[in-house]
Amino acid sequence: MRILVADKLPAHVADTLRAARHEVRLEPDLTAATLPEAVGGVDVLVVRSTKVTADTVRAADALRLVVRAGSGTDTIDCDEATRCGVLVANVPGANALAVAELTMGLLLAVDRAIPDATAELRAGRWDKKRFSAVGRGLHGRRLGIVGLGGIGLAVAERAAAFGMSLVALEKGSRSAEASRRIDALGIRLVPDLVALAAEVDVLTLHVPLATGTEGLVGAEVLDALQPGILLNTSRAEVVDTEALLARLDDGSLSAGLDVFPDEPGSGTAEWRSPLAAHPRVVGTHHIGASTEQAQDAVARGVVEVVTAFAGGELRNVVNQPATAESAP
């Protein structure tokens, strides 16, 4: 098969696929704008951060499979892929620990004002008086978790080690293993999101972007949370941006964000965001999954998905094109 890898992935991805007699092109500098020109004749497209637009899908005359090197597929126009008979697959769960680690890092950074303190030191200013007064501490604080999948549970385990009290949003059904971990961690389940926000000091979001989660955290939820901290390492669209900005402006909330509305469709770009520039926000560049450990795990998952597809097996497919072929 002809495979285009349009983002930087560990070298062993191409090595393994080439050893299986696939033709592999590595073009990690492609962007959403230039990708349509590169997909002609390609059977399989592998992306991580690069957006796959409808133009790309329509320009790909031979494309049968798009593999997202990660869990979320909202950067891929899955509707257009479905219409064009193109399968979309992901690699879920491989980055859970990395995202959980960043979530805790953002929480500590917000609580102790670590970025501001670092900036003052780099500017040659010593202000122990100011920064001695900012941290509330984590022990005994209440953490509300929205989304108890692999990432949410990994966050819960780490927060428990800090002595935080754990509360989470209930949902209809869970696996036996998830239920066991919830019981072992002593997580209390609450059926209503507003009620959950009202009783916690920190609210952390770990849900995929879908019809039922877009705008999930709106003004009512944020009003219930204040004063507190919002952490979002899932997708920006889960939160009402204007409502969040209003709470940040009035000083009732702080936030740790790894995701932002209208993020650039490439790895580097000039970009401005009122959220990213806000003094009550600690932000990172959508790097939750960007550790060496996580990327190695994701890369292995990509190889498994492509290898299975080459053998006629579909793995982790998230759409159902009526005309898609299941084998090369």
Automatic annotation (TrEMBL):
<dbReference type="Pfam" id="PF02826">
    <property type="entry name" value="2-Hacid_dh_C"/>
</dbReference>
<comment type="similarity">
    <text>Belongs to the D-isomer specific 2-hydroxyacid dehydrogenase family.</text>
</comment>
<dbReference type="GO" id="GO:0004617">
    <property type="term" value="F:phosphoglycerate dehydrogenase activity"/>
</dbReference>
<dbReference type="GO" id="GO:0051287">
    <property type="term" value="F:NAD binding"/>
</dbReference>
<feature type="domain" description="D-isomer specific 2-hydroxyacid dehydrogenase NAD-binding">
    <location>
        <begin position="104"/>
        <end position="288"/>
    </location>
</feature>
<dbReference type="InterPro" id="IPR050857">
    <property type="entry name" value="D-2-hydroxyacid_DH"/>
</dbReference>
<dbReference type="InterPro" id="IPR036291">
    <property type="entry name" value="NAD(P)-bd_dom_sf"/>
</dbReference>
<dbReference type="InterPro" id="IPR006139">
    <property type="entry name" value="D-isomer_2_OHA_DH_cat_dom"/>
</dbReference>
<dbReference type="Pfam" id="PF00389">
    <property type="entry name" value="2-Hacid_dh"/>
</dbReference>
<keyword id="KW-0520">NAD</keyword>
<feature type="domain" description="D-isomer specific 2-hydroxyacid dehydrogenase catalytic">
    <location>
        <begin position="3"/>
        <end position="319"/>
    </location>
</feature>
<dbReference type="InterPro" id="IPR006140">
    <property type="entry name" value="D-isomer_DH_NAD-bd"/>
</dbReference>
<keyword id="KW-0560">Oxidoreductase</keyword>
<protein>
    <submittedName>
        <fullName>D-3-phosphoglycerate dehydrogenase</fullName>
        <ecNumber>1.1.1.95</ecNumber>
    </submittedName>
</protein>
